[in-house]
């Protein structure tokens, strides 16, 4: 049985805590407001909540950072000096190059025991009360160790995620960020933008909202602070993805303006074919 400390008990941290407890591990939660986290014990999400971060991580085998990517450096600086020599640290942030860059800037190199990670799972909800047992079963978790990372640390974090049913994929931080800009960050921006446009006349349009619109905008219910940090942390790749998407929207608008039925059908058929090639969720 390992002692796992989760700092930042949100949707992902809470869901992982549930699964780790089910697997027999002892889980302690830390956060900015220990009193706010206290109900997580009664809900069976964690074994304990600790207000003293340093004391918590001193006995930890594994520390999981579930904080927004913009706070990773700050949080690691707070706990780093108090970690045991056997502890490994990982995170669950949606960008990886920025995390590596920030930690290198703080210490000159990525700490050998730090394994950057990102579970490709979640919902539009936030907070530990929205956490779900079994969220990671059959899901992909990306790890992005660098040349500074101890292979033994990577192996331990890999085993942690596999224990809760996840498939582990190893990429470079740059590969991860380029891919997630398209598959995660761009859809999030589109959902926010579409919902913002809808909000200009919500009263008139609300009775006409169907399942398609709800599916397209579900992500707009996500935490805006977290996604602000993600957008800025993956700025270059997200900007590129947004511009490529705008080019495609321009092509679509031109076809609509021209009444070009053949072009529209070709675009839609190509998209349909690509969609049908996606693996099952």
Automatic annotation (TrEMBL):
A single BP term in Gene Ontology: tyrosine biosynthetic process
GO molecular function, one term: NAD+ binding
Keyword set, alphabetical order: Oxidoreductase
SUPFAM superfamilies named in the record: 6-phosphogluconate dehydrogenase C-terminal domain-like, NAD(P)-binding Rossmann-fold domains
Annotated ranges, domain Prephenate/arogenate dehydrogenase: 2-281
InterPro entries, A to Z: 6-PGluconate_DH-like_C_sf, NAD(P)-bd_dom_sf, PDH_C, PDH_N, Preph/Arog_dehydrog, Prephen_DH
PANTHER family: PREPHENATE DEHYDROGENASE, PREPHENATE DEHYDROGENASE [NADP(+)]
Name of this chain's protein: Prephenate/arogenate dehydrogenase domain-containing protein
Organism: Immundisolibacter cernigliae
């Amino acid at each position: 049985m390992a002692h796992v400390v989760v700092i930042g008990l949100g949707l992902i941290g809470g869901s992982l805590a549930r699964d780790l407890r089910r697997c027999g591990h002892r889980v302690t939660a830390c956060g900015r407001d220990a009193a706010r986290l206290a109900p997580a014990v009664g809900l069976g999400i964690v074994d304990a909540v600790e207000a003293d971060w340093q004391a918590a991580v001193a006995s930890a085998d594994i520390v999981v950072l579930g904080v927004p990517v913009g706070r990773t450096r700050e949080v690691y600086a707070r706990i780093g000096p108090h970690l045991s020599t056997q502890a490994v640290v990982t995170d669950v942030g949606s960008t990886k190059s920025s995390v590596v860059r920030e930690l290198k800037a703080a210490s000159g190199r990525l700490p050998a025991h730090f394994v950057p990670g990102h579970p490709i799972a979640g919902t539009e909800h936030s907070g530990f009360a929205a956490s779900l047992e079994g969220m990671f079963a059959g899901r992909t978790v990306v790890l992005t160790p660098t040349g500074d990372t101890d292979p033994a640390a990577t192996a331990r974090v890999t085993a942690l995620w596999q224990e809760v049913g996840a498939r582990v994929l190893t990429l470079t931080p740059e590969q991860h960020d380029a891919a997630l800009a398209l598959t995660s960050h761009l859809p999030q921006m589109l959902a926010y933008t579409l919902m913002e446009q809808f909000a200009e006349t919500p009263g008139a349009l609300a009775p006409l909202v169907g399942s398609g619109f709800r599916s397209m905008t579900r992500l707009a219910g996500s935490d805006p602070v977290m996604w602000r940090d993600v957008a800025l942390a993956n700025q270059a790749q997200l900007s590129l993805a947004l511009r490529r998407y705008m080019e495609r929207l321009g092509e679509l608008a031109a076809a609509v303006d021209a009444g070009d039925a053949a072009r529209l059908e070709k675009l839609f058929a190509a998209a349909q074919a690509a969609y049908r090639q996606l693996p099952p969720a």
